[in-house]
Design goal:
It contains nine helices and 57 strands. By secondary structure, the protein is mainly beta. Strand 17 and strand 18 form a beta hairpin. The longest helix has 11 residues. This is TonB-linked outer membrane protein, SusC/RagA family.
Length: 992
């Protein structure tokens, strides 16, 4: 790299040059990466990447602009080693579970990375509906993905995202950054010649279902019933052919072979007058789904002068999702102003406003009013059109059409009558003042806010399976967070030594309140108001306030721009801890050595070699109201519920200790770069809830205990194999591996005992054992002999039942990888991105139920056997202890119902390895001489796609699966997952 480039970059860091592009333009053409790149670190402090002793990966604006995602976080999937974006597959809002370097906490919600916007942390709070994904038979409601804080961030307003992976990188942000942080920097006005620049970005995309389960359409509804002639038959209601077989949800009826049976007649709502052709309706599930459409239009205005930068942005996004009558619209406004009041005083502000509305978002999970539930129970011989009238004639609004079961709601009633609405307003922003006393000493004061105001409505009509007299709910949620920071900075050069010091303090206050009103039953049909309630349940608002006061400091030193050392310290005082443990201190230290400069190794082929290492310790405070006994509101007015969890007045903070080391290389005139990092993270003294003796009057108690260790490797590679005037090829790849180990548990779980972190559907358990890993899935498995043969019960002919649960697998992959390619061919740009994972397991409730009912292709095995029986492949245990082949035939319904029963976790759990073509784009940028007469400075047309192709052995919709339990995204479980979208769209970008 040329010396003048280095000087310009150094001046930029000192604030003497405002635009880094000048340096970039003077670099050699074949430079793939600017090794002096500036990245945003903790507290918004800008640093040279070479000076950091930890990993800070940067994702630039073009990633979010080029591939339009409703949620910016999904655009980062596969691009950063160690970063995982997990959604619950629950509809268009796609709330994200963002984690870095694996799972560290026994609390599933305690593993999220911190999201920071323009230096101000977001609370990232999520309020659920209070229900779990598996709710069959409970008579209650279902979870709904109504979006979380990051959903409101507009991708078009993002300038860059810097990923700080370890505790060292985010040490100055305190306990909430113990799992790393994503530093979002929004755009600000930067133009040339003090001219106003107007940018317009418009896109339209279309969604279709990426992958379907393998539905079978060879056999119809029934349970192997035979008529008087000994033949399999079907009859909707009792008929001359025999008793009714039309009330079952199973598809073990007759084969579709040209027969005629008495079937359902939609004209009369009863049995057909004559026998009708027995035939399949192969579009009776897929035909319900529509082509989704999303349009997004963004216009921004920006200008900059010597003293002022200004930008304003307006974006409207309209989403019509693939499920009929679902989707949302979002209006974003972003405002940025930076003004140099005097030569010493600068003030800046950034505000973002998001208004998100939806008349209906889909419910997810396994319960009556979920469309997933309908898809599971829909039979091959049932025409989807039979449901379209929705209401029985003369019973409009009172009694729905669901002719095959009163437990299965009409799909069109689910879509058009069971409405889940939301109106959400969110404001984030900050005001920052900076005063430079002289070239060495400055002070910064920043005040940031996050304000959420959300109203939710839930409507359930008469005759819905769980609410025969209807239901209406209103929820009002406010979440306000205020962050105030004072940062003092000192810089001084001593010949070859350079020292900078930052010291400051912050006050963070969070206030959360939810009001909940429920109308259990409606007096008047269709009147969704609280005044129309048969029984009105009003819950007293439950506050959840917390405050953290902090002081912190950072000292950075470097020698000759070749050796760098950072030392940080932070002390927090948390309101969620008792007085004696409320104050806790945690330090970090990191260093980097530019070996290529130290040993004079730089040359035309070997350009850059950096060695880095860091160590950090972070304290983690608990949630509010864990110290004392607090009563909660009851459904009965004027009453309260005693807590079921015993508090801990002596609660201590958790300890998170992180150590990492790595190297960065740059070769062949910086056209090839390689980074490798090794890390270890120990989370000790965790705040967990464990069962306690019922005699105590409580079900659980809160304690400090348990240790989890994560070790891993991260690698990334970037290269420019070809670069000339008319053609260039950029390629980048990343790979990460994480190994998680539980090294200690509370004494109550010593020996072979296990601690159940969570459970799903009453059959899948997330058990923690010493030596095991977070994410270990436990449940009943098949009984096998020493040879691995399945052992059958000689009397029943069905698999023998185990007497204890065992480990089935782990919810998290063994490794993940991503690959991006960018080609530039004259005015064309072609880019595409693959990513995937190896390993990981997930339990599927959909697979269990559809296999039990004979709805999937693999259940066709044995259908042609005489008398509808099958012999399970395996052995039986003889009286002498030996084994012999199983020979007992059982009915197909008994076999599939038992082999794939809900409690048999082994047969319903599958490998979640996959490879996805995550995104692709072809763009054409018009040359300057073509667009200049139009007064344009840039015009680009593009077509793009997302989730275009997938390879996986996972049998359901998507291997990237998780269950939405209340507000918790639980990996490793598919409980009524909704389909994943394949997206194709086009885009226009212009500037003038």
């Amino acid at each position: 790299m040329r010396k003048e480039t280095q000087k310009l970059l150094l001046l930029s860091l000192l604030g003497l040059v405002s635009v880094n592009m000048a340096a970039q333009q003077n670099t050699k053409k074949d430079t793939v990466k600017n090794i002096d790149e500036v990245v945003v670190t903790a507290l918004g402090i800008k640093r040279q990447d070479k000076s950091l002793g930890y990993v800070a990966e940067k994702v630039n604006a073009d990633v979010f602009e080029n591939i339009q995602n409703n949620n910016w976080a999904q655009g980062m999937e596969g691009r950063v080693a160690g970063l995982k974006i997990q959604t619950a597959g629950a509809g268009p809002m796609a709330s994200s579970r963002i984690t870095l370097r694996g799972e560290k906490s026994f609390n599933l919600d305690g593993n999220y990375a911190l999201i920071v916007v323009d230096g101000v942390p977001l609370s990232n709070s999520t309020t659920g509906t209070g229900t779990e994904a598996y709710g069959a038979g409970t008579g209650g409601d279902l979870p709904i993905d109504l979006g979380n804080g990051p959903n409101s961030i507009n991708p078009d307003d993002i300038e860059s995202v810097t990923v700080l992976k370890g505790a060292s990188a985010a040490a100055l942000y305190g306990s909430r950054a113990a799992n790393g942080a994503l530093m979002i920097t929004t755009k600000s006005g930067k133009t040339k010649n003090a001219k106003m620049r107007v940018s317009f970005n418009s896109s339209m995309s279309f969604d279709s279902v990426l992958k379907w389960p393998d539905y079978q359409y060879e056999y119809g509804q029934g349970t192997l019933a035979k008529n008087s002639a000994g033949e399999f038959y079907y009859s909707y209601g009792a008929s001359a052919d025999g008793v009714s077989t039309g009330g079952t949800s199973s598809a073990f009826g007759p084969k579709f072979d040209g027969q005629y049976y008495y079937q359902y007649d939609p004209a009369t709502g009863g049995q057909s007058a004559e026998r009708k052709l027995w035939r399949p309706y192969k579009d009776n599930i897929k035909g319900f789904w529509e082509t989704g459409m999303t349009s997004s239009n963004n216009v921004s205005f920006e200008n900059s002068t010597e003293r002022t930068n200004f930008r304003a942005s307006f974006t409207y996004l309209d989403n019509k999702w693939m499920m009929p009558n679902t989707g949302f619209d979002r209006f974003n406004v972003a405002f940025s102003l930076d003004h140099k009041v005097t030569d010493k005083f600068r003030i800046s502000t950034k505000f973002n406003y998001a208004n998100t509305k939806s008349d209906n978002l889909p419910a997810t999970g396994y319960n009556n009013q979920s469309i997933s539930y309908f898809m599971i129970f829909q039979n091959p011989n049932v025409d989807l059109n039979w449901y379209k009238p929705l209401w029985k004639q003369g019973q409009e609004g009172i009694d729905q059409i669901h002719p095959f079961s009163s437990y299965i709601d009409n799909p069109y009633m689910i879509a058009y009558q069971m409405l889940n609405g939301v109106a959400k307003k969110m404001v984030t922003g900050n005001v920052t003042g900076t005063y430079d006393f002289n070239k060495n000493f400055s002070v910064m004061l920043r005040s940031g806010i996050e304000m959420l105001d959300e109203k939710r409505t839930t409507k359930r009509p008469y005759s819905s399976a769980n609410y025969l007299k209807g239901f209406y709910r209103e929820q009002y949620i406010t979440n306000n967070e205020f962050n105030n920071d004072l940062l003092i900075t000192f810089k001084k050069d001593f010949n070859k030594f350079n020292i900078s010091a930052n010291a400051g303090g912050s006050i963070r206050y969070n206030q959360y309140v939810m009001n909940d009103y429920r109308a259990e039953g409606l007096k008047v049909v269709g009147d969704y108001s609280l005044n129309n309630a048969i029984s009105l349940i009003t819950k007293v608002p439950k506050p959840s306030d917390q405050q953290t006061n902090s002081v912190y400091g950072l000292v950075s030193a470097n020698y000759d721009n070749k050796i760098f050392l950072d030392v940080t310290g932070r002390n927090d005082w948390s309101s969620t801890l008792p007085v004696e443990y409320r104050s806790f201190f945690y330090p970090s230290v990191s260093t980097s050595f530019i070996l290529s400069d130290l040993f004079g190794l730089s040359g035309s082929n070997f350009n850059y070699w950096k060695l880095r290492a860091s160590w950090a310790k972070v304290g983690v405070a608990g949630s509010p109201y864990m110290l004392d006994k607090y009563y909660s509101t009851s459904d009965f007015q004027g009453s309260a519920l005693t807590p079921g969890t015993y508090p801990n007045p002596n609660l201590k903070p958790e300890d998170n200790t992180n150590i990492e080391a790595g190297m960065d290389f740059s070769l062949l005139k910086n056209r090839l770069t390689y980074n490798v990092t090794l890390y270890q993270n120990d989370t000790d003294n965790q705040i967990i809830t464990i069962p306690t003796l019922l005699e105590s009057g409580y079900s659980y108690r809160i304690i400090n205990s348990g240790n989890v260790r994560n070790r891993g490797v991260e690698m990334s590679l970037s290269a420019i194999p070809v670069k000339n005037k008319n053609f260039s090829w950029n390629i980048s790849a990343n790979w990460s591996l994480n190994r998680n180990k539980i090294t200690s548990l509370p004494p109550e779980f010593a020996g072979e005992s296990y601690y159940t972190i969570s459970s799903v559907a009453g059959v899948l358990y997330y058990n923690a054992v010493v030596g095991g890993s977070l994410g270990d899935l436990y449940g009943f498995k098949l009984v096998r002999n020493a040879n691995g043969d399945v052992v059958y019960d000689a009397n029943t002919g069905l698999p023998s039942r185990p007497d204890r649960v065992e480990k089935v697998g782990n919810a998290f992959p063994k490794w993940r990888a991503g690959l991006q390619n960018d080609f530039k061919i004259k005015n064309f740009t072609i880019s595409f991105s693959f990513d995937g994972q190896y390993g990981g397991m997930a339990y599927s409730q959909t697979h269990h139920k559809m296999s039990e009912q004979g709805k999937l292709e693999h259940t066709l095995v044995g259908r042609d056997n005489p008398n509808g029986t099958i012999v399970g492949q395996g052995v039986v245990l003889n009286s002498d202890g030996s084994y012999s082949p199983n020979t007992k035939a059982v009915s197909l319904t008994s076999y599939y119902g038992d082999y794939y029963r809900r409690a048999n976790v082994e047969t319903n759990t599958f490998d979640t390895s996959f490879v996805k073509l995550r995104d692709a784009r072809i763009a054409y940028s018009f040359s300057k001489d073509v667009i200049a007469p139009l007064k344009l400075t840039e015009l680009t047309l593009a077509v793009f796609g997302k989730n275009l192709w997938m390879w996986t052995k996972f049998p359901m919709f998507d291997p990237e699966v998780a269950a939405l339990n209340d507000s918790t995204i639980t990996p490793g479980a598919e409980i009524g997952q909704l389909p994943t979208a394949r997206t194709v769209g086009f885009q226009v970008n212009l500037k003038f």
